[in-house]
Write a structure and sequence with these properties.
The protein is an alpha+beta fold and 713 residues long. It has 3 domains: 281 residues, Beta-galactosidase, Chain A, domain 5, CATH 2.70.98.60; 203 residues, Aldolase class I (TIM Barrel), CATH 3.20.20; 93 residues, Immunoglobulin-like (Sandwich), CATH 2.60.40. The protein has 14 helices and 40 strands. Strands 5, 6, 7, 8, 10, 11, 13, 14, 15, 19 and 20 form an 11-stranded antiparallel β-sheet that branches. A hairpin with a 5-residue loop joins strand 2 and strand 3. Helix 6 packs parallel to helix 7. The longest helix is centred in the C-terminal third of the chain and has 22 residues.
C-alpha cells in the first residue's frame, strides 16, 4: 500500500504482498516507512535522516522473549529474532487535539504475537513520540524480556557524530559531557568482515531512583553543522538506550527496562497485553533548537495546572535553615519574614511529625500525624492558620511511599502491601517500601492526603523519596523484580493523578533527595521538580544553569537560601541563580537586617515581573552547557515574542569581563538591561551593535547578572 490511510481506516495487506510505503507527519516532522523484503515495516526517513532504503533500516519493533533469543550475540538490542518476524499488517492515522497519530499493526503468525507501534507528534513541533503495545494472540504464554520503544537507523556514521550524556548524581545533577561516538564504537572495517560491529554505546538507569547516575536522555550532534537528535525515555523505573554502527551509518535504540539490565520480564498469557514506556526524539538545527522542541513537547504532554501559568514564589523552611527541625517557635518568625519578602506559598519541610526528643524519626515515619511536642498549644493548625493569615498557601513535606521499620503501620498493613523478594519484606535504611498496586497501601495514602489536604487545608505537598530499591519487588503476580518495580512506579503516578483529580488546586513538588527522580513520566504529572539538595551556593550554579535540559523552567525548583551572615554580593548571588527557574526561597530571613531583607525583596520582585515570560520561554546556552568547575556560566531564555531574551550570567572566578554570543539576535538593534542586582556596581551589560554578542562585566566574584535583551520590532 502506498500513501497514508484516512483517519480511522485500517489498511490490511498480506505478508507476502508487494512492498508498501507509508508517509506520515506534518510540516515540522515528516516520516516515511517502507516494507523490507522480509515483510517487516521500517522507518526509512525522518526529516533528513535515513537512506530511504528499507533494507538498511531497522524493523519498527525489536524484542526478545524466552525461547526465541536475539539474532546475534552482543550488547545491542537490535537484530532480534522476533523483530525480523513481525510482518506489516496495516496502519491507521488520526488527528486530534493538535496531535498527528499513527498506529502500525505488526504480526508474527508463527507464535501469534501482535505488536502495535503507536507513534505521535504534536503539530508544529519536530518531536516524535513512540511506544509499543504487545498483544498475545497465540495459544501459549510468551515471556517477554525486552521490547523497544523507538528505533531509528540511517543516522550519520560514527565518524561525524558527537554524543552527549548527562551525569546526574546527588548534589551534582545535570552534568552534561561530550565525546565522539567513535571513541566507543570502534571502526572495525565492516566491509572486510561483511558484518556490522557488535559494539554499542549503552546507558542504563536502574532502581527506584531512575535518574540516579544519568538522566534518561542523550543527544547526537553532527560535527560539521550542529544538526542534533535529542531523546528522552519516559520511564519512572528502569530504562536503557544504545547507539551503534549499522549499514555504514548509526542507529539509536530506546528501551524501558530489560531482563539483562533490570531483571524485568513479563508473561503474556493468551489475550494479555503490555505497553512500553514512551521514547521521545526531538530534532533541531543545533542542540539549543532541539532542546527548545523538547521543552515545547514537555509542556504539551504534562497534566494542565494553573501553577504552570502563575509560578507562585515558594518558601521552604528546610535548606540551610531549619533542616528538618520545625517548631512553632521557629516557624512563626520565618512565616512573617517570608511574607514580607514576597513569598506566596510556605512549605513546612520534614520533621513536623517527629515527637521524639532526639530527632530519631527516620525509622518511625508512616502515620504522618503532627507532633504535639513541636506544636504545643494550638498544634500545627495554628501554624497553618498563621501562614494563611499572612496571605500565603500552606504546604507540608511528605514521604508517602515509605513506612519506617519502627512504625506501627509496619505491622498493621498487609504483608503484600510492601516490596518483597522471595517472601521477605525489603528494608532499606530503616524503611519499608509500599507497593502502590496494593489497595491497602493506596487506601493508607488516600486517608493521609484527605486528612492533610481535605481537612487541614494544605495546598502544597512536597513529596520526597529518600531510599532506592534495586532491582525492585517480586510480589504476587510479578515474574521478576524489575516488572514489579515498573508496576509500582506506574501505580504511584496513577495514585497521584487521582489525588490531583480530587484536589485540582493542590500543587505537588516532586523530590527524591533532589533530582533522583527527574524523569519525564513523573514530570508529566507533578507541578514542580526539585533540582538538587546542593547546600553550597557556589556549587549550585552549574545545576541551575543546566536544569532546563531536564525540566521546563517553570517546573524546575531552584533553591535560593540567603543568610544573614552572607555579605551583600553572596546574598545577590544565591538569589540571582534561581531567577530563570522556579525560585524556592529559604534561609534565616527573620534574622536579616532591613537592608539585607530589601535585597531579597528586590530579587523576588524581579522574578515576579518576568515569571509569565518564563512559562513559555525556551532555554539556550550562549556559552554551551555548563561544566561543573567553569568560572563563567550562562543560561538564556528566549521568549516566543521573538524580541525578548533573558540571560543569567554567573562569575565564580576568572577575568571580570566576558562576551556572550547571542546569535538569534544578530544584526538587530538590541537594548540590554541588568534586572538583577539592582545595584549598578554589581555589573553591567552592553550589546555590541556590530555583532551578535553582549558584553558583560562582573567586577567581583562570586557575582551574577540577570540581563534582559530586547530587540527592536
Amino acid at each position: 500500500m502506498t500513501g497514508t490511510a484516512d483517519a480511522g481506516e485500517l489498511a490490511q495487506r498480506a505478508p507476502n504482498s508487494p512492498r508498501g510505503k507509508v508517509s506520515w507527519g506534518h510540516a515540522r516532522l515528516a516520516a516515511e516507512f517502507a516494507t523490507a523484503a522480509d515483510g517487516t515495516l521500517r522507518l526509512t526517513r525522518l526529516d533528513d535522516t535515513g537512506s530511504g532504503d528499507p533494507e538498511t533500516a531497522l524493523p519498527l519493533v525489536e524484542l526478545t522473549a524466552l525461547g526465541h533469543g536475539s539474532g546475534w550475540s552482543g550488547p545491542r538490542f537490535t537484530g532480534t529474532a522476533l523483530g525480523s518476524r513481525l510482518r506489516y499488517q496495516g496502519h491507521r492515522t488520526d488527528r486530534r487535539d493538535g496531535w498527528e497519530r499513527l498506529t502500525v499493526e505488526l504480526h508474527d503468525p508463527a507464535i501469534g504475537l501482535t505488536a502495535f507501534a503507536e507513534l505521535s507528534s504534536p503539530a508544529g513541533v519536530p518531536v516524535l513520540r513512540s511506544r509499543v503495545r504487545l498483544r498475545n494472540d497465540g495459544d501459549t504464554p510468551l515471556v517477554v524480556q525486552s521490547v523497544s520503544s523507538l528505533l531509528l537507523a540511517g543516522l550519520p556514521g560514527p565518524d561525524s557524530l558527537d554524543v552527549h550524556r548527562a551525569r546526574n548524581e546527588w548534589l551534582a545533577e545535570c552534568r552534561w559531557y561530550t565525546e565522539p561516538l567513535r571513541a566507543t564504537v570502534a571502526d572495525i572495517n565492516a566491509d572486510a568482515h561483511q558484518h556490522d560491529s557488535r559494539a554499542a554505546l549503552a546507558l542504563t538507569g536502574r532502581g527506584s531512583w531512575p535518574t540516579d547516575g544519568h538522566l534518561p536522555m542523550g543527544a547526537l550532534t553532527r560535527r560539521d553543522d550542529g544538526r542534533t537528535w535529542l531523546w528522552q525515555i519516559e520511564s519512572p523505573a528502569g530504562w536503557r538506550w544504545d547507539l551503534g554502527e549499522h549499514a555504514r551509518g548509526s542507529y539509536l535504540a530506546l528501551n524501558g527496562p530489560t531482563d539483562a539490565a533490570h531483571q524485568w520480564r513479563v508473561r503474556l498469557a493468551p489475550g494479555e497485553e503490555f505497553t512500553t514506556v514512551p521514547g521521545v526524539l526531538a530534532l533541531g538545527a543545533g542542540f539549543d533548537a532541539a532542546m527548545g522542541a523538547l521543552t515545547s513537547y514537555r509542556r504539551l504532554v504534562r497534566r494542565p495546572h494553573p501553577d504552570h501559568e502563575h509560578l507562585p514564589v515558594v518558601f521552604n523552611d528546610y535548606m540551610n535553615t531549619l533542616m528538618g527541625d520545625p517548631t512553632t517557635a521557629k516557624l512563626l518568625p520565618l512565616i512573617d519574614a517570608a511574607a514580607e519578602a514576597g513569598a506566596e506559598y510556605f512549605c513546612i519541610d520534614s520533621g513536623w511529625y517527629d515527637d521524639t526528643a532526639d530527632g530519631g524519626w527516620w525509622n518511625s515515619v508512616g502515620a504522618w500525624e503532627p507532633s504535639p511536642r513541636r506544636f504545643p498549644g494550638g498544634g500545627i493548625q495554628a501554624v497553618l492558620d498563621r501562614i494563611r493569615e499572612r496571605g500565603m498557601v500552606p504546604g507540608l513535606w511528605l514521604e508517602p511511599e515509605v513506612i519506617g521499620v519502627d512504625s506501627p503501620l509496619a505491622a498493621t498493613l498487609p504483608p503484600d502491601a510492601f516490596f518483597q523478594r522471595d517472601g521477605v519484606r525489603l528494608t532499606e535504611q530503616g524503611r519499608h517500601q509500599l507497593d502502590l498496586r496494593h489497595p491497602a497501601a493506596r487506601a493508607h495514602l488516600d486517608r493521609t492526603v484527605d486528612r492533610i489536604v481535605g481537612e487541614w487545608g494544605v495546598g502544597y505537598l512536597k513529596l520526597d523519596y529518600n531510599i532506592v530499591v534495586d532491582p525492585g519487588t517480586r510480589g504476587p503476580g510479578d515474574l521478576a523484580p524489575g516488572a514489579g518495580l515498573l508496576g509500582h512506579a506506574q501505580a504511584y503516578l496513577d495514585w497521584l493523578s487521582d489525588v490531583l483529580d480530587r484536589y485540582p488546586a493542590l500543587v505537588v513538588e516532586n523530590c527524591a533527595s533532589g533530582g533522583m527522580r527527574m524523569d519525564g513520566a513523573t514530570l508529566a504529572v507533578t507541578q514542580l521538580q526539585s533540582t538538587s539538595d546542593q547546600q553550597d551556593p557556589l556549587r549550585y550554579p552549574p545545576v541551575s544553569a543546566s536544569a532546563a535540559t531536564a525540566v521546563p523552567p517553570e517546573q524546575g525548583a531552584v533553591w535560593a537560601y540567603p543568610q544573614p551572615e552572607f555579605d551583600d554580593d553572596l546574598i545577590r548571588f544565591t538569589l540571582g541563580g534561581a531567577l530563570l527557574g522556579r525560585i524556592h526561597l529559604s534561609g534565616h530571613l527573620n534574622r536579616m537586617s532591613e537592608p539585607q531583607l530589601r535585597l531579597v525583596r528586590d530579587a523576588v520582585d524581579v522574578y515576579r515581573s518576568i515569571r509569565r515570560d518564563l512559562a513559555t520561554a525556551l532555554p539556550c546556552w550562549p556559552l554551551g552547557l555548563p561544566g561543573w568547575t567553569d568560572e563563567w556560566l550562562a543560561l538564556g531564555m528566549r521568549v516566543p515574542d521573538g524580541r525578548t531574551t533573558y540571560l543569567s550570567v554567573w562569575r565564580r572566578g576568572g577575568e571580570a569581563e566576558l562576551s556572550l554570543p547571542v546569535g538569534h539576535l544578530a544584526g538587530r538593534a538590541v537594548r540590554a538591561e541588568v534586572l538583577h542586582p539592582v545595584d549598578a556596581s554589581a555589573g553591567t551589560a552592553e550589546w555590541d551593535g556590530d555583532g551578535d554578542v553582549v558584553r558583560v562585566s562582573v567586577p567581583r566574584a562570586p557575582g551574577v547578572l540577570l540581563v534582559r535583551l530586547t530587540a527592536e520590532a
